[in-house]
Amino acid sequence: MAYRNPFKPTAGASPPLLVGRDEVLEEFEESIDDGPGAPGRLSLITGPRGVGKTVVLNAVHDIVVAKGWIAIAETATTGMCDRITQAVRRHHEELRQGRSARVRGITLPVVGGGLTFESRADPPADLRESTASLLDELEPNETGLLITVDEVHRKSVGEIRHLATVVQHLVREDRNIALVMAGLPSAVSDVLSDSVLTFMRRASREELSDVSLADVRESLAETITRNGRTITSSALDAATEATGGYPFMVQLVGYHCWRKTTGSAIDDAATSSGIPAARKRLGSTVHAAALADLSAVDRTVLLAIAVDDGPARTADVARRIGESAKYVSIYRQRLIDAAVIQPAGRGFVDFTIPYLREYLREHAASAL
Predict the structure, then answer these.
(1) CATH number of the domain that residue 272 is part of
(2) Residue 39 within a domain
């Protein structure tokens, strides 16, 4: 019997079960139901790579579509606002199909074209006017428009400024609109430092973190049994522990343990080969990408942190790289903002991403 792998270890792909995000999604849904001005209608989702920011955007998209809203999903790259404008116009046109010309009068008898029609004007090309025009169509049915923007970063500040300004005016007008954006903590902070984007500083900010191991265990077991296989208790314990509660690793471990199984039950043999495969894939997809965005000094500091098996004392890090504590504190904050490390008690730091310590030790030369 062939068993189709249910796990989705691909960036941005929605997992078969979304765990640990109920509170965030419930607040958003309540804000949609509460009407214009509710806080969750303007939200910023942050967190380290692989924590599930895009998955949350997908989930809020599904929430509003189920309520009859229109949702436009975009990425913060050049031309974003033009693409949103085109999407708004396209949705507007789809709503008007069948209504693009309406009967204005009938001349009897109807012979040779006794029907006369009134054509409706094309929607405006400007983003603000186009969006307002679309909302005019939606709001009588108590529906609205959600715009999601993924991968917010400092290079996109001009596009985000334009979009936020439009949304700000529509919020002031009590329109049925919602805007949810996602990005790494440092990138979101850079965007919010823009003097024009004070409006976005009032957005509801949700910082995603790891999921509890209890939720991970339940999710793995349910996904596996729903799809026709079983997993032994010891294998489930090993798989759960290997994820570290890191959402992307949950999918990687599940995927590779499933792939390494030949029969109907995932056992210790499957996890003993599946977990190393998952860790290797995590290194090539998440660790390498996280390090690529950092400076050489950032990576040197990380290598000094990786010397310890657990949380590292910042004073020891300074000694290892031959610099002052004040010098290290600058890079400590940079790495915290980039969601690569986190405070771990007074004077200590630790890695945010699972297995990054091991990856740095294994790839020390290439990390510099």
Answers:
(1) 1.10.8
(2) yes
Whether residue 227 is contained in a domain is answered as: yes
Q: Note down the domain range covering 264.
A: 213-281
Per-residue DSSP letter, 98: T
From the list 210, 281, 215, 209, the residue with the least C-alpha distance to 245 is: 210
Task: Compute and round to an integer the Cα radius of gyration of the chain.
Answer: 25
Residue 183: phi and psi, rounded to 5, are -175, 170
Distance CA 238, CA 273 (A): 11
Q: Say what the alpha-carbon torsion angle 122, 128, 129, 130 is, to the nearest 10 degrees.
A: 20
- Tokens standing for residue 52: 């599930």
Residue where a domain stops, chosen among 253, 281, 309: 281
Mean pLDDT, consecutive 10-residue stretches, the chain (368 aa), reads 88 82 94 94 92 94 96 95 96 77 38 43 76 95 96 90 94 96 88 80 90 95 96 98 95 97 95 96 92 93 96 96 95 91 93 93 73
**pTM of the entire predicted model:** 0.84
Q: Is 359 among the domain residues?
A: yes
